[in-house]
Design goal:
CATH superfamily: Amino acid/polyamine transporter I
GO molecular function, one term: L-amino acid transmembrane transporter activity
Shape: globular
Subcellular location: Membrane
Protein name: Amino acid transporter transmembrane domain-containing protein
CATH topology: Amino acid/polyamine transporter I
Strand content: under 5%
Membrane topology: Multi-pass membrane protein
Oligomer: single chain
GO cellular component, one term: organelle membrane
Strand order of the largest sheet: 1-2
């Protein structure tokens, strides 16, 4: 071969490489749809174990932490903490079962494994439940932000928000205006990320802010214990009549909702550098979140006892009776408001994907259609904003989502997949566990109507 021929061959090869690079640069951040599911792109090499733990932990540890001290008021500390651990163990078992059936069926999403077991009806039902659950949870986030920054009167007594405490009652410290500014300035920009791994840093910061809230609450409680201003609360529920007995069931939807993260497990697992690590990611996240849940429930209920509100953050507007109490009140509330702002996009991400797949199952990938991506995002954020201004208490929202969609996503659907057993891999233990997991579903539905 002549020198000229070799030179021409090199030029042709270099030209091909340049063309390939141009094509790769235009590839979408999220992978293309394959049978309605999402995989990886060539440019994205994979998410880290730590980043995945933060993302899944942030999915779990959202608004539920604020309602858990109120569940201790109903159950007592001993029974309440026992049930928190029990629900965490049950959640891990349901996710393990879900992932096992996903691997055997070759499904890379929750919707995929539901479709494998029950066809399009199962997939559609799953998507509807994700919409109900995630919209409800995000409404709860906004309600808490309104409570923290503007104040709340849901208990019949007005509790001033941070801004109202600093500046008094002004038109711009009102609930609607504060939520509008927060939505436009914070929620909307954070909802624009097109890959869930892009949120790993905000998720890490969100977990850190939750720990800040916990540390300060624990510190205040220990100081008040040492000076003798609070005493040990009830360990068991106070059941005096039939109404107080029925009230015990109302906490189950709150506890179930606090652990539901199943709709994000596949997405996080698909983006992992080593997808086989998804089970350790789940176990690590559940252990971390359970620890935070238990400590928050313990110290929050210990601090406020039977005065604990549905949203414990609203309790931090009173005189704590310790030095710098007012400053600590504000730090606690502002840190957790910031935490929820950073959690919002993690819950919003699967909400948008499932709505798009439900409405446009045959359309090109959402990430490659900026117009559809924008319209769906604006529509969902507007709906959540309206809901937060119409629903007075987070307890109401938790009751609804926990008694309907959350229990289906967390327990009933994984149990139904195991009982259906489309590939004949379910063991006797799986089927017994599946029957047992349907139990919380019935309790949640009963509790949600009390």
């Amino acid at each position: 071969m002549t020198i000229k021929a070799v030179s021409e061959k090199k030029k042709t090869k270099n030209s091909s490489r340049k063309k390939e690079q141009v094509v790769n640069e235009k590839a979408p951040l999220l992978p293309k749809k394959i049978a309605g599911d999402y995989g990886r792109t060539e440019e994205f090499t994979g998410a880290s174990f730590t980043g995945s733990v933060f993302n899944l932990s942030t999915t779990i540890i959202g608004a539920g932490i604020m309602a858990l001290p109120a569940t201790m008021k109903v159950l007592g500390l001993g029974l309440g903490i026992t049930i928190i651990v029990f629900v965490a163990v049950l959640t891990e078992a349901s996710i393990e079962m879900l992932l096992r059936f996903s691997r055997v069926g070759g499904s890379i999403s929750y919707g995929g494994v539901m479709g494998d077991a029950f066809g399009n009806v199962g997939r559609t039902l799953l998507q509807i439940c994700v919409l109900i659950n995630n919209i409800g949870i995000l409404i709860v986030y906004m309600i808490i932000m309104g409570d923290v920054l503007s104040g709340t009167s849901s208990s019949g007594v007005h509790h001033a928000g941070v801004l109202e405490g600093w500046f008094g009652e002004q038109w711009w410290t009102g609930r609607t205006f504060i939520l509008l500014v927060t939505t436009v300035a914070v929620f909307a920009p954070l909802a624009c990320f097109k890959r869930i791994d892009s949120l790993r840093f905000t998720s890490a910061l969100a977990v850190a802010l939750a720990v800040v809230f916990l540390v300060i609450t624990a510190g205040i409680t220990v100081i008040k214990l040492l000076n003798g201003s609070i005493s040990m609360p009830r360990l068991l529920p106070d059941v005096t009549d039939i109404n107080s007995a029925w009230k015990l069931f109302t906490v189950v939807p709150v506890l179930v909702t606090a652990y539901v993260c199943h709709y994000n497990v596949h997405t996080i697992g698909n983006e992992l550098d080593d997808p086989s690590l998804i089970q350790p990611v789940v176990q690590t996240s559940l252990a971390l979140c359970s620890t935070i849940y238990i400590m928050t429930s313990f110290f929050g209920f210990l601090l406020f006892s039977d005065s604990t509100l549905d949203d414990v953050l609203a309790n931090f507007d009173t005189n704590l009776g310790i030095p710098y109490g007012s400053l600590l009140n504000d730090v606690v509330r502002v840190s957790y408001a910031l935490h929820l702002m950073l959690v919002f996009p993690i819950i919003f991400y699967p909400l948008r994907l499932n709505l798009d797949d439900l409405l446009f199952p045959s359309a090109r990938p959402l990430v490659s259609d900026n117009r559809r991506f924008t319209l769906i995002s604006i529509g969902l954020i507007s709906l959540i904003f309206l809901g937060a201004n119409c629903i007075p208490s987070i307890w109401d929202a938790f009751q609804f989502t926990g008694a309907t969609a959350a229990v289906c996503l967390g327990f009933i659907f994984p149990a139904a997949i195991a009982l259906r057993d489309p590939h004949g891999i379910a063991t006797k233990k799986d089927k017994l566990l599946a029957v047992f997991m349907i139990g919380p579903g019935g309790i949640c539905k009963f509790g949600g109507h009390i």
